[in-house]
Amino acid sequence: MSASLIAACLWVLAATATALLPMRRQYAPGITLLVAAPLLLGWIGWQHGGLVFALALLAFLSMFRNPLIYLARRLAGQPAHRPEEP
Asked: What are the protein's UniProt keywords (predicted)?
């Protein structure tokens, strides 16, 4: 197994552990994962080609759809609401 796929597996495990945290504690590790993802996706695409890159990108967008929608709304100047704990 290549180093990029091992790094991707570790990223997925870190994302899973982050998802198990209470919402107020998810922000710092979540932002770190969000920033690291494009670098990891680029590395995967460079080593394994476009199809694997596309599949990894779809998985990333699925996992981070709400934070990405929030950031897009903030950048567009629209109101964006953070999810709160009950």
From this structure: Membrane, Transmembrane, Transmembrane helix
Asked if residue 82 is part of any domain, the answer here is: no
Quick one: pLDDT band at residue 71, thresholds 50, 70, 90? Answer: confident
Residues 31 and 25 sit within 8 Å (Cβ to Cβ)? no
Q: Total domain count for the chain?
A: 1
Give whole-number Cα distances, 17 to 12, 21, 76, in Å: 9, 7, 31
Residue 31 lies in a domain: yes
Is residue 20 one of the residues assigned to a domain?
Answer: yes
> How many Å apart are CA 15 and CA 23, to the nearest integer?
13
pTM of this structure: 0.73
Q: How far is 15 from 32, CA to CA, in rounded Å?
A: 10
